[in-house]
Amino acid sequence: MLSIAAMSDAAATGSDRLVKLMVIATAAGAFSGLFGVGGGTIVVPLLILWFAYGEREATGTSLAALAVIAAFAAVGQALYGNVEPLEALIVGLPAIGGVVAGATLQQRLPERAVSLMFAVLLVVIAVELAIP
Amino acid sequence: MSPADIALAAGMGAAGGLVGGLLGVGGGVLFVPAMVIFLDLSQIEAEATSLLTIVFVAAAGAWRQRGYDNVRIRDGLVIGVLSPIGVAIGVVAANAVSQRVLELSFAALVLFVATQLVRRALRPEAGRSPAAGTAADP
Question: Which range marks the domain in which residue A57 is found?
Answer without folding.
Answer: 13-130
